[in-house]
Amino acid sequence: MIYIHILRRERVLIEEYTITNKTLGYIGRQLNRSKSTIHYERQRVSPYNALQAQVDYDNKRENCGCKRQVNLEDITHILIHLKKG
């Protein structure tokens, strides 16, 4: 199974289905996602709002992972070796 992030349009559909009181199973089948994925997504923002969920996702995505830092010594070392061939 390929894991991909929930798209903005999917968040809008989740909000629309939530407003119309559709079940997690129904929403999951429509979006080809697991019920647990839909459940987790709806729990992140209460009451569920697609715009707030996207902002929350963007903030978390921005702060995740390690940021690579290259210092000046590394850059000069690489440039010297590139010039040598």
Overview of this protein structure:
It is built from five helices and no strands. It is elongated, with a radius of gyration of 21 Å. Helix 2 (24-31) packs across helix 3 (35-44). The mean pLDDT is 88. 66% of the residues lie in helices and 0% in strands. With 85 residues, it is mainly alpha-helical. It has helices at 8-19, 24-31, 35-44, 50-62, 72-84. 11% of the residues are buried.
Classify the secondary structure makeup into a structural class: mainly alpha
- What fraction of the residues are assigned to beta strands by DSSP? under 5%
Order of helices and strands: HHHHH
Q: Figure out the total of helices.
A: 5
Unreliable spans are none
Number of strands: 0
| Largest sheet properties | none
| 3D shape | elongated
Terminal residue distance: 43 Å
* Rg, nearest Å: 21 Å
The helicity comes to: 55-70%
Average pLDDT metric? 88
Please describe the topology of this protein:
Elements (H helix, E strand, L loop, with lengths): L7 H12 L4 H8 L3 H10 L5 H13 L9 H13 L1
Helix pairs in contact: 1-4, 2-3
State the main characteristics.
mainly alpha
Care to give the gist of this entry?
This protein has 85 residues and is mainly alpha-helical. The protein is built from five helices and no strands.
